[in-house]
């Protein structure tokens, strides 16, 4: 399995954020491109879980979240496994990251992505073959 890019949760959330129109437009363009090229993009179960919690917390219904999660699941989805957790723990120590950021990075590595789209890590930094891109800069 190998994709070109991995989306962190914030890419998906900004796609539906009416309070951030500039970020929303950029995120929607990325999401639409991913739907046109489903084998190009990966996410993880963690991303879907975080999306659900934050989307519902922002005032949307769980039913709305479920429909979007079904749509996002047409992309490559990296499952939460013990092996992924082990990789996340090693990346956490190596790069001095929070566990949650390390797990996103582990999922991006596992997907074969060369780009991780997020605003949560250092733009342009290469984390062992996965380069961070902050599309909102």
Structure keywords:
alpha/beta; 5-stranded parallel beta sheet; Rossmann fold; 137 residues; 5 strands
Describe this structure in words.
The protein is an alpha/beta fold. Strands 3-2-1-4-5 form a 5-stranded parallel beta sheet. The chain is built from 6 helices and 5 strands. Helix content is 53%, strand content 12%.
Architecture blueprint of SSEs:
Blueprint: E1 5-7, H1 9-14, H2 21-36, E2 41-44, H3 45-57, H4 62-72, E3 76-78, H5 82-95, H6 99-111, E4 115-117, E5 131-133
Helix pairs in contact: 3-4, 5-6
What name goes with the CATH superfamily?
Answer: 5'-nuclease
Instruction: Summarize the biggest pleated sheet.
Output: 5 strands, parallel
Q: Which value, in Å, is the CA radius of gyration?
A: 14 Å
Which sequence of SSEs, written as H and E, runs from N to C? EHHEHHEHHEE
Number of strands: 5
Structural class of the secondary elements?
Answer: alpha/beta
Oligomer: single chain
Shape: globular
- First-residue to last-residue Cα separation: 29 Å
Strand line-up across the major sheet: 3-2-1-4-5
Beta content comes to 5-15%
Quick synopsis:
The protein is α/β, with parallel strands linked by helices and 137 residues long. Helix content is 53%, strand content 12%.
